[in-house]
């Protein structure tokens, strides 16, 4: 019998809290979600309010192991900054990249936020759909070689 906990075992309480968070999105989260839902952004899939026990990620892109956090005024207190730093350190130790943006930036300059996220996705090795359509150059090993006969 295996007594080890399951990977990312989510409690019913955490799952219910995440479900509630999906229903009551702040304006910045709703705006961001419209940009990324259904693979609209670079054809990568994002989920919202995803439990990654013992935490909940605002937005999660599994293929790039990327977490996007949108922070309102609550996150400006010293106590919350310390909590967020500990949370980010733990998630980073699990192989995730965490990007944090203030809600004001999302509402005022969404293009800058999306550019930063796109760069992070590419840096994590998830190519853009445009790069997949481009043929690799022979110098990159993508060309055909004639075999000697």
Explain what the structure shows.
The chain is of the alpha+beta class and 149 residues long. It has one domain: Endonuclease, Chain A (3-Layer(aba) Sandwich). The chain has 6 helices and 4 strands. It has helices spanning 12-23, 27-36, 78-93, 103-108, 110-123, 129-133; strands at residues 47-52, 55-61, 66-71, 97-102. A hairpin with a 4-residue loop joins strand 2 and strand 3. The chain is globular. The model is unreliable at 140-149 (pLDDT under 50). Pfam families: DUF559. This is DUF559 domain-containing protein. Residues 140-149 have a biased composition (Gly residues). Residues 14-121 form the DUF559 domain.
Topology:
Elements: H1 12-23, H2 27-36, E1 47-52, E2 55-61, E3 66-71, H3 78-93, E4 97-102, H4 103-108, H5 110-123, H6 129-133
Parallel strand pairs: 3-4
Antiparallel strand pairs: 1-2, 2-3
Organism: Methylobacterium thuringiense
Biased composition (Gly residues): 140-149
Domain DUF559: 14-121
Per CATH, the class reads: Alpha Beta
SSE sequence, one letter per element: HHEEEHEHHH
Q: How many separate domains?
A: 1
Question: Number of helix segments?
Answer: 6
Region (Disordered): 127-149
Organism: Methylobacterium thuringiense
Protein name: DUF559 domain-containing protein
Pfam families: DUF559
Task: Briefly summarize what is shown.
This protein has 149 residues and is α+β, with helices and mostly antiparallel strands.
Relevant terms:
single chain, 149 residues, alpha+beta, Endonuclease, Chain A, four-stranded mixed sheet, disordered C terminus
